[in-house]
Write a structure and sequence with these properties.
Strand order of the largest sheet of chain A: 3-2-1-4-5
Largest sheet of chain A: 5 strands, antiparallel
Number of helices of chain A: 10
Structural class of chain A: alpha+beta
Radius of gyration of chain A: 23 Å
Oligomer: homohexamer
Number of strands of chain A: 7
Largest interface: A-B, 59 and 59 residues
Helix content of chain A: 25-40%
Strand content of chain A: 15-25%
Chain lengths: 329, 329, 329, 329, 329, 329
Amino acid sequence: MPAPPDLKQLAVGSRVQDALLVVDVEQRDSARGPFTILTLGNCHGQLSTAPFWPEDQPRIAGIERGVVAQVIGEVGQYGGKRQLKVSSIRVLPRGAVDWHLLLPSVGDVAPYWETLDRWRGEIRGPRLRRTIDLFYGDAEFRRRYEECPASTAGHHAELGGLLKHTCEVAVIGRAIAKVCRADQDLVLAGVLLHDIGKLDAYRWPGAFGVTDDGALLGHVTLGMLMLDRRVGEEDPPPCTDQELTILLHLIASHHGRQEFGAAVPPMTLEAEVLHFADNASAKTASMADALDDPDNFTGEALVSAKSLWQLDRRRAYRGSSDWGLGAGG
Amino acid sequence: MPAPPDLKQLAVGSRVQDALLVVDVEQRDSARGPFTILTLGNCHGQLSTAPFWPEDQPRIAGIERGVVAQVIGEVGQYGGKRQLKVSSIRVLPRGAVDWHLLLPSVGDVAPYWETLDRWRGEIRGPRLRRTIDLFYGDAEFRRRYEECPASTAGHHAELGGLLKHTCEVAVIGRAIAKVCRADQDLVLAGVLLHDIGKLDAYRWPGAFGVTDDGALLGHVTLGMLMLDRRVGEEDPPPCTDQELTILLHLIASHHGRQEFGAAVPPMTLEAEVLHFADNASAKTASMADALDDPDNFTGEALVSAKSLWQLDRRRAYRGSSDWGLGAGG
Amino acid sequence: MPAPPDLKQLAVGSRVQDALLVVDVEQRDSARGPFTILTLGNCHGQLSTAPFWPEDQPRIAGIERGVVAQVIGEVGQYGGKRQLKVSSIRVLPRGAVDWHLLLPSVGDVAPYWETLDRWRGEIRGPRLRRTIDLFYGDAEFRRRYEECPASTAGHHAELGGLLKHTCEVAVIGRAIAKVCRADQDLVLAGVLLHDIGKLDAYRWPGAFGVTDDGALLGHVTLGMLMLDRRVGEEDPPPCTDQELTILLHLIASHHGRQEFGAAVPPMTLEAEVLHFADNASAKTASMADALDDPDNFTGEALVSAKSLWQLDRRRAYRGSSDWGLGAGG
Amino acid sequence: MPAPPDLKQLAVGSRVQDALLVVDVEQRDSARGPFTILTLGNCHGQLSTAPFWPEDQPRIAGIERGVVAQVIGEVGQYGGKRQLKVSSIRVLPRGAVDWHLLLPSVGDVAPYWETLDRWRGEIRGPRLRRTIDLFYGDAEFRRRYEECPASTAGHHAELGGLLKHTCEVAVIGRAIAKVCRADQDLVLAGVLLHDIGKLDAYRWPGAFGVTDDGALLGHVTLGMLMLDRRVGEEDPPPCTDQELTILLHLIASHHGRQEFGAAVPPMTLEAEVLHFADNASAKTASMADALDDPDNFTGEALVSAKSLWQLDRRRAYRGSSDWGLGAGG
Amino acid sequence: MPAPPDLKQLAVGSRVQDALLVVDVEQRDSARGPFTILTLGNCHGQLSTAPFWPEDQPRIAGIERGVVAQVIGEVGQYGGKRQLKVSSIRVLPRGAVDWHLLLPSVGDVAPYWETLDRWRGEIRGPRLRRTIDLFYGDAEFRRRYEECPASTAGHHAELGGLLKHTCEVAVIGRAIAKVCRADQDLVLAGVLLHDIGKLDAYRWPGAFGVTDDGALLGHVTLGMLMLDRRVGEEDPPPCTDQELTILLHLIASHHGRQEFGAAVPPMTLEAEVLHFADNASAKTASMADALDDPDNFTGEALVSAKSLWQLDRRRAYRGSSDWGLGAGG
Amino acid sequence: MPAPPDLKQLAVGSRVQDALLVVDVEQRDSARGPFTILTLGNCHGQLSTAPFWPEDQPRIAGIERGVVAQVIGEVGQYGGKRQLKVSSIRVLPRGAVDWHLLLPSVGDVAPYWETLDRWRGEIRGPRLRRTIDLFYGDAEFRRRYEECPASTAGHHAELGGLLKHTCEVAVIGRAIAKVCRADQDLVLAGVLLHDIGKLDAYRWPGAFGVTDDGALLGHVTLGMLMLDRRVGEEDPPPCTDQELTILLHLIASHHGRQEFGAAVPPMTLEAEVLHFADNASAKTASMADALDDPDNFTGEALVSAKSLWQLDRRRAYRGSSDWGLGAGG
């Protein structure tokens, strides 16, 4: 299979003949009749199709959100924006294409594992290490964890995003723990456990979404239940009841305040560190994404054209300087 | 001069014969008549006196907040709490005693300078380095900066607290910048400049307080004015207008949101990093202080006796575990 | 043992010779020296003692919060308020007196059980009934549930308060469910399960308090963990995974909004009903208590003397009318 | 006149020849020119028409919001949604058709009256009964009250909705009053009076809307004025001044908090009961409506496709279980 | 009767022999026994007494809040504060002393009336003038209006304060109306009517307080009811229904937002003007009072010693400059 | 050059042959293809064009936001709204047309200057007058100040709007200062300085917009920097350091609260006056604009058709009465 085309960069006139994910199917009305526009995507990004008119409906029978299709077409332009004029589209059997070619991804996950596993190996308390290893020493857990996105449409919304985010929180959490003299091992444990509930709260093959359990219980309590159940399966238990409570508190409080979804606010130094590290990774990733997206800016403007929802309605500024560096200063 | 006694640990029956700072002078009424209680302090902590009754008033003439006094007395106990029974108290001339012996302090500031100066030396953009050096290359600025507290009664409220806090924000900021790929030099510049306004907003000899300028303008805008004035004094200017705006924005936005005192919210990646690093240093220091203070806990209780104002009315938990480490696990 | 005296009504001059709970031990300072005041209580209410002066300290050695003591004394008056002048106070062995004589209580719990058990018996879905019976069919659970208060210092803060509150929520929930056509059985299940976490979150022998687990995890998530663990112990499971999620959602969402401590907001009709029924029972109990407490009013005033914290800083009005009924209207 | 067709269920190809209410007239632009779409409704629901193009404008002259028209047409389909292709539409004289056939309605109001009148008849205080009867014993008031909707586009937005809502609040209010021992008669009086201002605040013949008085004064104060005026017309007055104030307070406070439109917060037990009963009826009706509306869900999904404004931006879950009932468990 | 002494300025050693208002009676405990302190006041201010010990109780029998007493005593000092050592205190018959000598007051009200009556006389619309004159042309209304305070403990809390505040709102409202071209007559009508409900909401003879009606209904709705009733008494009515609604809306909305107690937000230009004028008069009066009160500042400090509740927890700054004027600039 | 046509009133069929500003260029899609609509404006208002279809694109090459064009066309109608059918549109050279003919404007600015300069001339403190005159005595400052809008799309969004707003704030501020006895000269200084930062924060030739500095620093801190720099340029300085701080505080606090963009809340009486005067001018202008705009109302309705964002989501009421004046009252 050839390398997937970079949908974000494909020039007008380029030919496409590739397996693409149907990310969205949108019906709109017009005076000429109703039409359908597909949003197609792969690991590089997304591109919309030209309209399918009523007479084209048979050609897109069976095309729905989450399906993978073999698409033949050509990149055109309409109203200043690129679009894909599809000449043929055909549903592929489930599993015919590796999801990693169809969805955005953090790429090679090995460095993230290498970092986290190294630090995990340095945990000194045997009961803490044993409890963490119930998850991080389990191959099936690792297989799912390295695929899961960290959100469905916000920060780190990509395959492996959760693992990357976890690694970032670990880096930041260690720096904070160092200056405030928190227990590094316990902070790391919190980092590794805080988002495990997302494995039950999200689904990602096909298209990123929230499971019914995710909607009804939230990833915070799902993570607490997951830890509680797994520890409960072990005989003898890997840690004491008080220790389990300390770990559950790290998960319960990592959103910081109840109005942001914490079950309780942080009451230990390590929970406080975890909250700030988690927040810093999530929010700076959103800012970096917003600045990277040219659609947020008009022409040469340095300030974003509108306030951005992912930044809580702030505008962003992409101006920069080399501070005289280029001038050999 | 002998080493100042550790007021926090002094046992009942101990004799005191030392120079102490008059931190507070409080008048109260009682059925027996009005009485006065002094709070005395030094670099190790504070201790309250036994009451001075009306007949004792001549002995404390001239004793007011911020004065240094030679105190002779003995540690007694009253209602379960230690108190100092003063037999003699005499005002000392201003400057007779080094402030560092009278106020809480971070101790040796050299390591903080060493860290910050090393990183400062690595700034690559010449105009950025030059602008920063207007302050950090100035001996008088350094002399004041290494004394200033980071707050008057909250986090890092000690001599040198601002420098220590700056160093912590630098450590955390570098970690965040690394994972989100922000400009490390610009983040460091923001770290070094964000709180310079506190030099004008606080006063610390005698007792920590807020200046009139600090109350009327706030440390955020005072810092902006300080940077603007200092750059304006240079001819040619050390940086361009746009660069100055970028630096001013870092100061202006470091409180994150207007309701927390930011002039504008962060609009650049580096401003976002700075905000989260600043917040993490301040809030985890408050949590660590709260957990260290035995007055927040009753007896053997692991949960604090009351919700703590410095933690936004949260309670704190001081329980911990060695996770089996002691057991040779 | 004689019936415990009604501490709220005892006239000045009355003699007390009874076992009382030491609800609080408060140290205060005065010009004459430090003194101690005890708050003593039994099932009828509380009464404070006259001061114990330094010379009286040996008489109250060993008296601490939560202890039960045999007290001999006489009701006096001081500054317009009744106080107990204690001539003898002696610690009793733990367990010497039935807690029900020492703490406020809802009284006979049988009618509450009768009502709840009757409705529980009418649940039609066998898997729902079986799951509920894991708790309500368990003698040890019932023994603890009928003792537990519904809060430590707010609404239904009395032995059996949780059971009484549960019964009230059931009555109200059924009425709401009737008019909005919710599933009565599922609403009842939510009513019976929503506060089970309080068994782990509170402790009540001695004096009402919050456990470490209650502080670190909150009664909402403790209840979810309790249900999850109990169901997990059964083989085969009493209900399906989806059914367990629906029950967990009822517990998770019963506080209505995240800022009020809900893990997630209600997403089903039954969860919405439960939330409003729970709220109505708690808030109207607080209002009724506030109106019943003469200390909230001055003299003949109909409007409370101050805004009341338990009513979110509202004032209360105790005026009423017989609307002409007495006049034979 | 034949029974009005069920617009919500009418199959494609069905013929319509009925009197319908013009609920909305919407002008839109398209490349082919401007077009008009009508929303037509009757007691069963609503259906939109196919576009009227410029050449069709004469056919819809005089058609405006609130008019009743005799419509002939056929149900077609366009973009997956049903629409009415109108072949003839003709304005009918005002009053030609019973409003109850044209607007959504609660149906037979007799049972609601029966319930409320029965409980009203049990009010014991003669002055209370007399005051309530000024309204509920007045035929013209009853005629209007049994038509008025409880909101224009939210809960119980249907003819008779106010009466139905009143009945629901009565049922719930009695249950709450029972458990907190509030005065049942006074709670009922509050239930019967709390929303009378809606008679002046809303208009409903034609289409539901807010009157100028409703916008400028709000239904809370309109209700207070209505009670005050009506009582003022009686000589001798039916109740005392204090009693009138107690009733006015019930109306004034039924929204609970000032930010939700209460003039004052509830200060009596009966006002507190009324507030929670009112809220429970309104909010659970909204949840039930949201779950009943298939447009809120996509395909087989159990969680609503988007957050719903009428639920304060929550999602809803329509999953359910028979808990083994069908299996004969 | 001699002029009342200026209690705020009376020097230590001065003799008092005057009728004073008992503003407060406070019981406190001490080791020596319970004691009572009276706060006495007259039109110039207030002064506290020395303690009345148990043996003094017969001397203050019958002394309660709101009573007027003939007091003989001498100004002493205790703990740095002046206090009145009472040698004789005797209750005077109700009405023996003019309230204006006993309560703080705005002084001569004639200028306020002169201003308001002049502008009232310029109202051009006859129906508007007639409606306003129902109140402002009524001698009894004027007698009460010129006594009523504008609040019980906040801005303009003095006899005549409501009239003074009304006059201030008129001055400011006219300036705002001028620049935004609002209807001056209607703004004036709103100014004159907006606070009439305070006549029913407050009581002022004796001591300022809130009536039961004021607590249960609030001055906003009381004012609306007062206008509605008065207009309803006239036959023919002085204005049309729409005009009455416009006037009621001015009262209903003058607090601006529902969370600040408005029944509805301002929807007309005149209501908006009224709201801002009312707010400006109230808030700047509070600021001026705070700056005038030396108790808010310590020694020579220019910034207030603490944040002030009456300024929403702001500090105040009393620094000023003559900007070189004194220097003959 | 002929007088610019009144775009708001131009009848259908009118011919246009004028220089117009391209206020907006909007691309939309339709089934017939993409099309472009221009919004054209001049000093009287704005008018949209009929669509430019793909085949028309060459005719609008070079037409972008902020350009001035010579336009020939005729007013048509489409979907009930007027539109301009353009037959010819041609870009004019920058500067060919006076901006005052192209943008909304307050008209003649002389009266505003006359008022402000007169009051400025009455300032008594020489150092205050001198500091103000650094700006208001500077011709270049005046030239820019009399052009600048007071906002880009809110209140006073027109050329000269800032000057007009300043004049309004002065009128209102003087009235408030009079009743609360604030320093009139200092209030006027605050009025004149509070918005000077808008000169740096906004740009207005072409189309109103926010500069990068305006976005990154905000007009409040820009104004503080502007004052600080200008004063710093003078030798000797025109005022003392404390005086400069008092002036900077007026700018810093004029938004009243931090959540509304104030650097600090008002701490002086004059800052409080300024804040309320500024707010009253801005908010009543928005209300007056909303009431003047017929697009906010449907047909004869007196209440606005929807809640208006510029009024914080309130509705507006345009009903009025002559109160019998016309009837010869």
